[in-house]
């Protein structure tokens, strides 16, 4: 299986730059937009991939299992979805805090190569194998 490393870094960079700006300038629409971009990964047309192509970021494809990265992106989308919901309800502190957690985890992955979502995915697989024998 193959993974585009530049796509992963591009996604992380968008989150690291735009989510703190959204909180700093109180622009919830940026959180909503990033949620839609993150949630589109299983749609026929992945909007993050489309944006990367539009900006002409070259691919850097490597042989690697994409499932941990998809799981991590799913978790990020869930957190951004919750952040969006809280922002829509007027609970800005909670909404922006959740969005900034996503930005912080993306920064850690971008800077140090540690993906918490990937880590959780692998440990959930290990736990499943332990308890089910599969």
From TrEMBL:
InterPro entries: DUF4395, UCP030042. It comes from Thermus aquaticus. It holds the Pfam family DUF4395. The chain crosses the membrane at residues 7-25, 71-91, 97-124. The keyword Transmembrane applies. Residues 3-125 form the DUF4395 domain. The keyword Membrane applies. It comes from the Bacteria. This is DUF4395 domain-containing protein. Keywords: Membrane, Transmembrane, Transmembrane helix. Signal peptide: none annotated.
